[in-house]
Design brief:
CATH architecture of one domain: Orthogonal Bundle
CATH class of one domain: Mainly Alpha
Radius of gyration: 16 Å
Helix content: 55-70%
Order of helices and strands: HHHHH
CATH topology of one domain: Arc Repressor Mutant, subunit A
Strand content: under 5%
Oligomer: single chain
Number of strands: 0
Distance between the termini: 33 Å
Number of helices: 5
Shape: globular
Amino acid sequence: MDSCNDCPKRRSCREICPAMEAKLPKEWDGRDSIFDDRPDRAERVENMLMNRVLIRRMLDHRECLTPAQREVFDLYYNDGLSQYQIAEKLGIRRNTVDEHLVRARERIARAAKGDDGDM
């Protein structure tokens, strides 16, 4: 499997699968040592973990999106396409892609607030 597009579970996917996660760049991809003790390392690791938590929370609430929002959301967050690539693939304007992403994030934030009061 080369991308999420090839996955038979793509439409129902709620989290990054191990096969795709293995393809993501790692914090320690050769430029950093896992034993690196520079002061900014802790901050970089914390930011990386916070981003993963946010993405997982977003994936947990993607079912509240409209079909159009979900399709753009999946292409952007799961497949890693740019807004221009999504617009070209779907035959819509780039501004429409941006609008779908903004509204999807807002809708997910509202759904998450209903769950635990913050996001």
